Protein backbone atom coordinates (compact mmCIF):
# COMPACT_ATOMS: atom_id res chain seq x y z
CA UNK A 1 0.00 0.00 0.00
CA UNK A 2 1.54 3.29 -1.12
CA UNK A 3 1.22 5.90 1.60
CA UNK A 4 3.87 8.23 0.21
CA UNK A 5 3.37 11.83 1.37
CA UNK A 6 0.42 10.95 3.58
CA UNK A 7 0.96 12.35 7.11
CA UNK A 8 1.05 9.95 10.05
CA UNK A 9 -1.71 11.99 11.63
CA UNK A 10 -4.01 10.75 8.87
CA UNK A 11 -2.69 7.20 8.67
CA UNK A 12 -3.08 6.74 12.43
CA UNK A 13 -6.40 8.59 12.80
CA UNK A 14 -9.24 7.19 14.88
CA UNK A 15 -11.98 8.43 12.58
CA UNK A 16 -14.56 11.16 13.01
CA UNK A 17 -17.65 10.57 15.14
CA UNK A 18 -20.03 12.05 12.58
CA UNK A 19 -19.98 12.24 8.80
CA UNK A 20 -19.95 16.03 9.03
CA UNK A 21 -16.71 15.92 11.01
CA UNK A 22 -14.70 13.85 8.53
CA UNK A 23 -11.85 16.23 7.60
CA UNK A 24 -11.67 17.54 4.06
CA UNK A 25 -8.17 16.12 3.52
CA UNK A 26 -9.35 12.66 4.63
CA UNK A 27 -12.32 12.84 2.27
CA UNK A 28 -10.03 13.79 -0.60
CA UNK A 29 -7.74 10.82 0.05
CA UNK A 30 -10.70 8.45 0.38
CA UNK A 31 -12.19 9.68 -2.89
CA UNK A 32 -8.81 9.27 -4.58
CA UNK A 33 -8.56 5.67 -3.33
CA UNK A 34 -5.30 6.30 -1.50
CA UNK A 35 -6.47 5.27 1.97
CA UNK A 36 -9.17 3.03 3.37
CA UNK A 37 -11.94 3.98 5.74
CA UNK A 38 -11.43 3.44 9.47
CA UNK A 39 -15.04 3.64 10.62
CA UNK A 40 -18.64 3.81 9.47
CA UNK A 41 -18.70 7.60 9.22
CA UNK A 42 -15.84 7.60 6.73
CA UNK A 43 -17.39 4.71 4.81
CA UNK A 44 -20.60 6.69 4.41
CA UNK A 45 -18.95 9.80 2.97
CA UNK A 46 -16.87 8.21 0.20
CA UNK A 47 -17.86 9.70 -3.15
CA UNK A 48 -17.96 6.54 -5.24
CA UNK A 49 -18.57 8.45 -8.44
CA UNK A 50 -15.28 10.30 -7.98
CA UNK A 51 -13.54 7.13 -6.79
CA UNK A 52 -14.71 5.28 -9.88
CA UNK A 53 -13.35 8.04 -12.10
CA UNK A 54 -9.93 7.69 -10.48
CA UNK A 55 -9.83 3.88 -10.49
CA UNK A 56 -11.30 3.41 -13.96
CA UNK A 57 -8.88 5.96 -15.43
CA UNK A 58 -5.88 4.19 -13.90
CA UNK A 59 -6.88 0.83 -15.34
CA UNK A 60 -8.09 2.06 -18.73
CA UNK A 61 -11.74 1.30 -17.99
CA UNK A 62 -12.91 4.81 -18.89
CA UNK A 63 -15.31 3.47 -21.53
CA UNK A 64 -17.39 1.95 -18.74
CA UNK A 65 -17.82 5.14 -16.70
CA UNK A 66 -21.10 6.12 -18.41
CA UNK A 67 -22.49 2.73 -17.32
CA UNK A 68 -21.47 3.54 -13.76
CA UNK A 69 -23.30 6.85 -13.94
CA UNK A 70 -26.46 5.20 -15.24
CA UNK A 71 -26.29 2.44 -12.66
CA UNK A 72 -25.95 4.90 -9.79
CA UNK A 73 -28.74 7.11 -11.09
CA UNK A 74 -30.98 4.04 -11.27
CA UNK A 75 -30.80 3.72 -7.48
CA UNK A 76 -33.92 5.54 -6.33
CA UNK A 77 -32.43 5.96 -2.86
CA UNK A 78 -28.67 6.28 -3.06
CA UNK A 79 -26.75 4.56 -0.27
CA UNK A 80 -23.13 3.51 0.07
CA UNK A 81 -24.09 -0.16 -0.10
CA UNK A 82 -26.37 0.24 -3.13
CA UNK A 83 -23.66 2.18 -4.95
CA UNK A 84 -21.12 -0.57 -4.22
CA UNK A 85 -23.48 -3.21 -5.57
CA UNK A 86 -24.22 -1.13 -8.66
CA UNK A 87 -20.56 -0.55 -9.50
CA UNK A 88 -19.82 -4.23 -8.91
CA UNK A 89 -22.59 -5.02 -11.38
CA UNK A 90 -21.07 -2.74 -14.01
CA UNK A 91 -17.70 -4.41 -13.53
CA UNK A 92 -19.28 -7.86 -13.81
CA UNK A 93 -21.01 -6.86 -17.04
CA UNK A 94 -17.73 -5.57 -18.44
CA UNK A 95 -15.37 -8.28 -17.19
CA UNK A 96 -17.56 -11.24 -16.27
CA UNK A 97 -16.22 -13.56 -18.94
CA UNK A 98 -13.57 -16.01 -17.77
CA UNK A 99 -10.94 -14.60 -20.13
CA UNK A 100 -11.49 -11.01 -19.00
CA UNK A 101 -12.08 -11.63 -15.30
CA UNK A 102 -8.62 -12.25 -13.84
CA UNK A 103 -6.85 -8.93 -14.37
CA UNK A 104 -9.63 -6.61 -13.11
CA UNK A 105 -10.28 -8.99 -10.22
CA UNK A 106 -6.63 -8.83 -9.10
CA UNK A 107 -6.59 -5.04 -9.46
CA UNK A 108 -9.69 -4.62 -7.32
CA UNK A 109 -8.90 -7.02 -4.47
CA UNK A 110 -5.39 -5.60 -4.01
CA UNK A 111 -6.47 -1.94 -4.04
CA UNK A 112 -5.65 0.34 -1.06
CA UNK A 113 -9.31 1.41 -0.81
CA UNK A 114 -11.62 -0.89 1.11
CA UNK A 115 -14.50 0.46 -0.99
CA UNK A 116 -12.76 -0.63 -4.19
CA UNK A 117 -12.02 -4.03 -2.70
CA UNK A 118 -15.73 -4.28 -1.92
CA UNK A 119 -16.46 -3.62 -5.60
CA UNK A 120 -14.29 -6.67 -6.17
CA UNK A 121 -16.57 -8.70 -3.90
CA UNK A 122 -19.61 -7.71 -5.94
CA UNK A 123 -17.75 -8.43 -9.17
CA UNK A 124 -17.33 -11.98 -7.85
CA UNK A 125 -20.92 -12.12 -6.70
CA UNK A 126 -22.40 -10.90 -9.97
CA UNK A 127 -20.15 -12.77 -12.40
CA UNK A 128 -22.31 -15.36 -14.19
CA UNK A 129 -19.40 -17.43 -15.49
CA UNK A 130 -18.29 -18.77 -12.09
CA UNK A 131 -19.31 -22.08 -10.55
CA UNK A 132 -19.98 -22.00 -6.81
CA UNK A 133 -16.62 -23.53 -5.92
CA UNK A 134 -14.86 -20.97 -8.13
CA UNK A 135 -16.90 -18.15 -6.64
CA UNK A 136 -15.89 -19.13 -3.13
CA UNK A 137 -12.26 -19.45 -4.17
CA UNK A 138 -12.36 -15.89 -5.59
CA UNK A 139 -14.17 -14.44 -2.58
CA UNK A 140 -11.80 -16.05 -0.07
CA UNK A 141 -9.15 -13.26 -0.04
CA UNK A 142 -11.91 -10.75 0.64
CA UNK A 143 -13.42 -12.92 3.37
CA UNK A 144 -9.99 -12.72 5.01
CA UNK A 145 -9.53 -8.99 4.36
CA UNK A 146 -8.07 -6.78 7.10
CA UNK A 147 -11.05 -4.43 6.82
CA UNK A 148 -14.35 -5.45 8.40
CA UNK A 149 -16.40 -3.64 5.77
CA UNK A 150 -14.81 -5.71 3.01
CA UNK A 151 -15.42 -8.90 4.96
CA UNK A 152 -19.11 -7.98 5.25
CA UNK A 153 -19.31 -7.23 1.52
CA UNK A 154 -17.71 -10.62 0.81
CA UNK A 155 -20.44 -12.72 2.39
CA UNK A 156 -23.27 -10.47 1.23
CA UNK A 157 -22.01 -10.62 -2.35
CA UNK A 158 -22.24 -14.41 -2.59
CA UNK A 159 -25.08 -15.22 -0.20
CA UNK A 160 -27.74 -15.68 -2.90
CA UNK A 161 -25.49 -18.17 -4.66
CA UNK A 162 -24.97 -20.07 -1.41
CA UNK A 163 -28.73 -20.17 -0.89
CA UNK A 164 -29.36 -21.42 -4.42
CA UNK A 165 -26.97 -24.37 -3.96
CA UNK A 166 -27.31 -24.83 -0.24
CA UNK A 167 -26.12 -28.43 0.18
CA UNK A 168 -23.05 -27.84 -1.98
CA UNK A 169 -22.34 -24.56 -0.19
CA UNK A 170 -22.51 -26.16 3.25
CA UNK A 171 -20.19 -28.98 2.18
CA UNK A 172 -17.64 -26.47 0.86
CA UNK A 173 -17.92 -24.10 3.81
CA UNK A 174 -17.61 -26.91 6.35
CA UNK A 175 -13.93 -26.98 5.36
CA UNK A 176 -13.69 -23.23 5.96
CA UNK A 177 -14.85 -23.86 9.54
CA UNK A 178 -11.55 -25.69 10.09
CA UNK A 179 -9.34 -22.92 8.71
CA UNK A 180 -6.57 -21.32 10.80
CA UNK A 181 -7.85 -17.82 9.95
CA UNK A 182 -10.73 -16.72 12.21
CA UNK A 183 -12.00 -14.43 9.46
CA UNK A 184 -12.45 -17.43 7.17
CA UNK A 185 -14.15 -19.43 9.91
CA UNK A 186 -16.46 -16.52 10.64
CA UNK A 187 -17.37 -16.21 6.95
CA UNK A 188 -18.59 -19.83 6.96
CA UNK A 189 -20.98 -19.10 9.80
CA UNK A 190 -22.03 -15.55 8.94
CA UNK A 191 -22.74 -16.20 5.26
CA UNK A 192 -25.22 -18.97 6.12
CA UNK A 193 -27.12 -17.38 9.00
CA UNK A 194 -30.81 -18.27 8.58
CA UNK A 195 -31.95 -14.68 9.02
CA UNK A 196 -28.78 -12.64 8.65
CA UNK A 197 -28.44 -8.88 8.53
CA UNK A 198 -29.20 -6.64 5.51
CA UNK A 199 -30.04 -9.69 3.43
CA UNK A 200 -32.79 -12.12 2.48
CA UNK A 201 -33.50 -14.95 4.88
CA UNK A 202 -32.55 -18.49 3.97
CA UNK A 203 -35.99 -20.04 4.39
CA UNK A 204 -34.77 -23.61 4.28
CA UNK A 205 -32.34 -23.06 7.15
CA UNK A 206 -35.07 -21.36 9.15
CA UNK A 207 -37.06 -24.59 8.92
CA UNK A 208 -34.17 -27.10 8.77
CA UNK A 209 -31.34 -25.53 10.78
CA UNK A 210 -29.78 -28.96 11.31
CA UNK A 211 -28.44 -28.68 7.76
CA UNK A 212 -25.95 -26.10 9.07
CA UNK A 213 -24.35 -28.37 11.67
CA UNK A 214 -21.35 -29.33 9.49
CA UNK A 215 -20.38 -25.64 9.61
CA UNK A 216 -21.39 -24.91 13.19
CA UNK A 217 -20.19 -27.98 15.09
CA UNK A 218 -16.45 -27.37 14.49
CA UNK A 219 -16.95 -23.81 15.82
CA UNK A 220 -18.72 -24.66 19.08
CA UNK A 221 -15.62 -23.82 21.15
CA UNK A 222 -13.90 -21.40 18.79
CA UNK A 223 -11.27 -19.26 20.55
CA UNK A 224 -12.07 -16.08 18.56
CA UNK A 225 -14.86 -13.85 19.90
CA UNK A 226 -15.50 -12.69 16.34
CA UNK A 227 -16.42 -16.26 15.43
CA UNK A 228 -18.24 -16.93 18.69
CA UNK A 229 -20.53 -13.95 18.07
CA UNK A 230 -21.43 -15.20 14.60
CA UNK A 231 -22.15 -18.75 15.77
CA UNK A 232 -24.25 -17.44 18.65
CA UNK A 233 -26.16 -15.20 16.25
CA UNK A 234 -26.68 -18.17 13.89
CA UNK A 235 -28.29 -20.15 16.71
CA UNK A 236 -30.35 -17.15 17.79
CA UNK A 237 -31.63 -16.78 14.22
CA UNK A 238 -32.65 -20.44 14.20
CA UNK A 239 -34.29 -20.17 17.62
CA UNK A 240 -36.93 -17.83 16.22
CA UNK A 241 -38.37 -20.61 14.07
CA UNK A 242 -36.99 -23.82 15.62
CA UNK A 243 -36.49 -23.13 19.35
CA UNK A 244 -36.62 -26.79 20.41
CA UNK A 245 -33.82 -27.70 18.02
CA UNK A 246 -31.62 -24.87 19.29
CA UNK A 247 -32.18 -25.86 22.92
CA UNK A 248 -31.32 -29.44 22.07
CA UNK A 249 -28.10 -28.46 20.28
CA UNK A 250 -27.08 -26.12 23.07
CA UNK A 251 -27.69 -28.77 25.73
CA UNK A 252 -25.56 -31.24 23.77
CA UNK A 253 -22.73 -28.76 23.23
CA UNK A 254 -22.73 -27.87 26.91
CA UNK A 255 -22.10 -31.52 27.76
CA UNK A 256 -19.51 -32.02 25.01
CA UNK A 257 -17.55 -28.80 25.50
CA UNK A 258 -17.21 -27.51 29.04
CA UNK A 259 -15.36 -24.26 28.38
CA UNK A 260 -15.99 -20.53 28.55
CA UNK A 261 -15.92 -20.17 24.77
CA UNK A 262 -18.84 -22.56 24.34
CA UNK A 263 -20.73 -20.94 27.21
CA UNK A 264 -20.39 -17.55 25.55
CA UNK A 265 -21.78 -18.94 22.28
CA UNK A 266 -24.68 -20.62 24.06
CA UNK A 267 -25.60 -17.50 26.01
CA UNK A 268 -25.76 -15.53 22.78
CA UNK A 269 -27.62 -18.28 20.94
CA UNK A 270 -30.27 -18.65 23.62
CA UNK A 271 -30.86 -14.97 24.31
CA UNK A 272 -34.27 -14.89 22.63
CA UNK A 273 -35.75 -18.06 24.08
CA UNK A 274 -33.84 -18.35 27.37
CA UNK A 275 -31.71 -21.18 28.72
Q: Can you give keywords for this protein?
A:
275 residues; mainly alpha; globular
Write the layout of secondary structure elements.
Elements: H1 8-11, H2 24-31, H3 40-45, H4 48-58, H5 65-73, H6 80-95, H7 98-109, H8 114-126, H9 132-143, H10 148-164, H11 166-176, H12 182-190, H13 203-207, H14 213-216, H15 225-239, H16 243-256, H17 260-269
Structure description:
There is one protein chain. With 275 residues, the chain is mostly helical. The protein is built from 17 helices and no strands. The protein has helices at residues 8-11, 24-31, 40-45, 48-58, 65-73, 80-95, 98-109, 114-126, 132-143, 148-164, 166-176, 182-190, 203-207, 213-216, 225-239, 243-256, 260-269. The chain is globular, with a radius of gyration of 20 Å. The model has no long low-confidence stretch (mean pLDDT 96).
How many β strands by DSSP?
0
| Low-confidence runs of at least 5 consecutive residues | none
Residue-averaged pLDDT: 96
Ends apart, CA distance between termini: 48 Å
Q: Which class of secondary structure composition applies to the elements?
A: mainly alpha
In short:
With 275 residues, the chain is an all-alpha fold. 64% of the residues lie in helices and 0% in strands.
